[in-house]
């Protein structure tokens, strides 16, 4: 357990270190009070953007990491010399930090108490098997090399898919960076770092809510925590380890905060390029490589706001802001900007098609589910009339939040840009999974609006006991809902356990050089999680599994060895009988079996 806590502290420390100097030197004055919570996100942005620029120049992470850390150190020292330190010794910071700490340990509870060492866990989703091989690959390779076919290397399918089909280069390269800095493998970092990204999104939601309302009180902090950090709808995605989505969400919230502050400035010289333009453009550039599918959710509202401002005030200034930011985003990395645009076109096209996506059916979220007060996945699906009855007061609170906003037009622009996606994916081209993801991308705004609306209602209530009772009631509903999802992860998680990790022993055996089959070739597919992680841990061996059997049929006639799990030698009447073992540990064995099937008889 202590290894997980140490890793947690080290990742957070590096994120703050990389982002601190740049943030302290460039953050606009009216954002400086809260900017300490921006630093881990600025650090994330800088690592992703700079690593990809170096990588495209064929400089892998093993070399670029030194430059990034050196620059971070120089900027940190420069901020101290310039006396541009970021304030944080406040009571507000202390309370926020306590809630951040609770969120971290609440969501890492299964990893800390049941597993006990740094590894990857998931409710069932196989996303880590896309990101971790690529994370390890990019330490010493570049995106230009990904997808190169090699015989007996089934795991390379992940690098080809992510680097040449999905174009999410920045998200695995973050794993590469931390893996290299800490000399770990990506699977050891994955679950811890995704929890960090989710957790450090919460302070941004709070900052957004108080800036939108210009109210600074504990009620906004409380309800931001209740409806975001304890939101079971988000926790389901977190425990299904949608890694890139959570990095995107935090950066997205930061973009909204920065742009809102930008349009709130009273200065008249903002037609020239300034720190707002650079910070927002860097964030958007990070999105183009970390989660290109999310770019449209971030950019379209800025465009809508520029158009509405022009129509309302006959003033093109906000459109000029948008064009400056867009131009800088293209200049920072035109390659990732281009791939992101192409990816968005492809996603929009595919989302209009209803097809099997390999995911259990998720009910369409109601306001009650969106605020996390009811568990969308692990509680009984409520009838529509109850969704309406319980959802109506939440919608009213959202409306009160909108009424009490500063710069209402900007928030309305966000909603106007997102609503067509909701409507399209719910009623025109029904796709429950795409609809669900669109909702979870944008839940941060509904959390902020709910917090602002409740703050307004509390201003009308003078009795402190009534306020306390309402907070406790909402806290109970959210915590109960969140605990249900955490329970599923605790008892039903898929884990990269010690048996799988033990295959690294075989990976290091230099005297075994010939290729071998894995048992699934003979026994059939029983556990996709295990089979794919076996491929990951055996990436330095020549192996044939169900994944690459078809492409290797002409090359396996002379393979005589089979790797099998000792406790899994028989399935559905098929049994592996070993005549000779050349390697074994507590969990696996490698050797020859009898009778060996002819290659034409294999599945």
Automatic annotation (TrEMBL):
Coiled coil: none
Transmembrane segments: 6-28, 35-59, 65-82, 89-109, 187-208, 220-239, 245-263, 275-308, 320-341, 384-403, 409-429, 441-459
Keywords assigned by UniProt, alphabetized: Membrane, Transmembrane, Transmembrane helix
Designated name of the protein: Glycosyltransferase RgtA/B/C/D-like domain-containing protein
Annotated organism of origin: Candidatus Gottesmanbacteria bacterium RIFCSPLOWO2_01_FULL_39_12b
